[in-house]
Design a protein that fits this description.
Blueprint (H helix, E strand, L loop, with lengths): L1 E4 L20 E5 L2 H7 L6 E4 L15 E3 L8 H11 L4 E5 L6 H16 L3 E6 L2 E13 L9 E6 L3 E6 L10 E4 L8 E2 L6 E15 L6 E4 L21
Parallel strand pairs: 1-2, 1-5, 2-3, 3-4, 5-6
Antiparallel strand pairs: 6-7, 7-12, 7-13, 8-11, 8-12, 9-10, 9-12
Organism: Bifidobacterium parmae
GO biological process, one term: thiamine diphosphate biosynthetic process
Protein name: Thiamine diphosphokinase
Length: 241
């Protein structure tokens, strides 16, 4: 398991819950995420970034610091995910990647789909909500005391997602089809005391659910190949000036 501290919004509200890093988790701070890791009293295993968003002192140069050029194709969060993937991590809990700049939020959500496409699973945490992606697989949620009005939404990241099942939800879908430009899956809810699942036979779903819900058990329908690729500091022709 990997915990990533990104540089975005951490929602320090009165009901904010401190980040708890599970024992043995691999921790990566992405650029300004180092400020938040320090504030949480967490020492990252690796710090990666160009440090354009870091407000505190830059980390000492060492094997645990990967300094990236400011002009590059891969955003710092993708670089952090690649570093953790190369260390064997396949489950990622990412903080500070929701809220603030909408383009960063959209980028982070797409990166969760990228992780899912290679057989991993990533969870973006922020403002009482968790966002994840599942490809050709299923998320099983244990029964819990679900509060009314706490929404669960499902969208197709793929052009088409087939065999979409949502048993146990307030509005159930069985063997449905969602497309990338439709939004039928918005504003669903867990039912109190009822286990629920969200699955897709073929395609990639983006799923949002309340942070207080139990973390789902992940089932994949087949093996996945490939990886996130090597750490890339290459500048494509599109970025050359």
């Amino acid at each position: 398991m990997c915990v990533v501290f990104a540089a975005g919004e951490y929602y320090a509200s009165p009901d904010y819950r401190p980040i708890r890093v599970p024992r043995g988790a691999f921790v990566v701070a992405a650029d300004g995420g180092l400020d938040h890791a320090r504030a949480a009293g967490v020492a990252p295993d690796v710090v990666v970034g160009d440090f354009d968003s870091l407000e505190g002192d830059r980390p000492d140069a060492s094997a645990d610091t990967i300094t990236l050029p400011p002009l590059k194709d891969d955003p710092d969060l993708l670089s952090a995910l690649k570093v953790a993937w190369a260390r064997g991590c396949r489950m990622f809990h990412v903080y500070g990647a929701l809220g603030g700049r909408i383009d960063h939020t959209l980028s982070a959500i797409r990166l969760m789909a990228l992780v899912a496409g290679h057989g991993g699973i990533g969870f973006l945490h922020g403002d009482g909500t968790i966002v994840t992606a599942i490809r050709d697989g299923r998320l099983d949620f244990a029964a819990h005391d679900a509060a009314p009005g706490r929404m669960v939404s499902v969208f197709s990241h793929s052009d088409v997602s087939r065999g979409v099942d949502e048993p146990g939800m307030r509005y159930e879908m069985l063997d449905g089809t969602l497309t990338g430009d439709t939004v039928q899956g918005v504003s669903n809810e867990f039912r109190p005391g009822v286990p629920a699942s969200i699955g897709v036979r073929e395609g990639t779903l983006i799923v949002t659910f309340p942070a207080e819900a139990p973390m789902p058990c992940v089932t994949r329908l087949h093996a996945f190949g490939g990886d996130l690729g090597a750490l890339d500091t290459h500048v494509s022709p599109l970025l050359r000036r």
